[in-house]
């Protein structure tokens, strides 16, 4: 083959300087246009944190500036024993200092339906006020009112309402009767099993 024709091909194939190829072949160089840069730069993703209000538990999403600082909420967790109800408030005793604390039932939210006298709970406190209660995954409560139990009833898809000693109304299978102890899930208030 002709060396004059092979030189440009060899220069391109071996990665030699492109400026030498036109000189070897006798062709005039054609400049390649620069890459288009008209596209906007890719934005940096901004995290959108979910914030939970300490009192009440409302969740909201908020965008923060890069230089913005967020104060840390210090939650004090104390293990306390529920003693008795006094009006609309519940009286708890601190297991370490034996101090008694009156807590409004509204501050505990749905946890008030699951605690009975003598039970322990971990109370979450912020600035000296109770904002939440941490309960075990399941509690045992006694059924105080329900329709009469049906003899030889098995677990079916039909349920009946049953009132517990704390006033919580739970849907239970038809074989559960008054006076029986049942396990209840504290997350959703659903019946789990007989205790």
What does the model show?
- The strands form 3 sheets. Strands 5-4-3-6-7 form a 5-stranded antiparallel sheet. A 5-stranded antiparallel sheet has the order 10-9-8-11-12, with no helix packed on it.
- It is 11% helix and 35% strand.
- Strand 4 (89-94) and strand 5 form a beta hairpin.
- It has 195 residues and is mainly β.
- The chain has helices at residues 3-14, 20-25, 105-108; strands at residues 50-52, 59-61, 76-86, 89-94, 100-104, 120-126, 129-134, 138-146, 160-164, 169-172, 181-185, 191-194.
- Among the domains are: 76-134, Beta Barrel (OB fold (Dihydrolipoamide Acetyltransferase, E2P)), CATH 2.40.50; 138-194, Nucleic acid-binding proteins (OB fold (Dihydrolipoamide Acetyltransferase, E2P), Beta Barrel), CATH 2.40.50.
- Mean pLDDT is 79; it is low at 5-25.
Keywords:
OB fold (Dihydrolipoamide Acetyltransferase, E2P); flat
Secondary structure layout plus pairing:
Blueprint: H1 3-14, H2 20-25, E1 50-52, E2 59-61, E3 76-86, E4 89-94, E5 100-104, H3 105-108, E6 120-126, E7 129-134, E8 138-146, E9 160-164, E10 169-172, E11 181-185, E12 191-194
Antiparallel strand pairs: 1-2, 3-4, 3-6, 4-5, 6-7, 8-9, 8-11, 9-10, 11-12
């Amino acid at each position: 083959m002709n060396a004059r024709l092979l030189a440009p091909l060899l220069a391109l194939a071996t990665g030699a300087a492109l400026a030498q190829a036109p000189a070897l072949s006798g062709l005039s160089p054609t400049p390649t246009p620069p890459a288009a840069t008209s596209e906007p730069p890719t934005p940096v993703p901004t995290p959108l944190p979910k914030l939970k209000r300490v009192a009440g538990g409302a969740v909201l999403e908020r965008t923060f500036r890069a230089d913005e600082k967020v104060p840390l909420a210090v939650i004090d967790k104390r293990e306390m024993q529920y003693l008795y109800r006094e009006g609309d408030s519940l009286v708890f005793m601190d297991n370490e200092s034996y101090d008694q604390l009156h807590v409004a039932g509204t501050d505990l939210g749905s946890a008030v339906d699951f605690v009975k006298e003598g039970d322990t709970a971990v109370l979450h406190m912020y600035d000296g006020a109770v904002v939440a209660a941490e309960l075990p995954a399941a509690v045992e409560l006694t059924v105080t009112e329900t329709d009469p139990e049906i003899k030889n009833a098995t677990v079916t898809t039909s349920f009946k309402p049953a009132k517990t000693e704390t006033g919580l109304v739970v849907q239970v299978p038809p074989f559960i009767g008054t006076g029986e102890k049942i396990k209840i899930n504290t997350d959703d208030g659903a019946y789990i099993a007989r205790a």
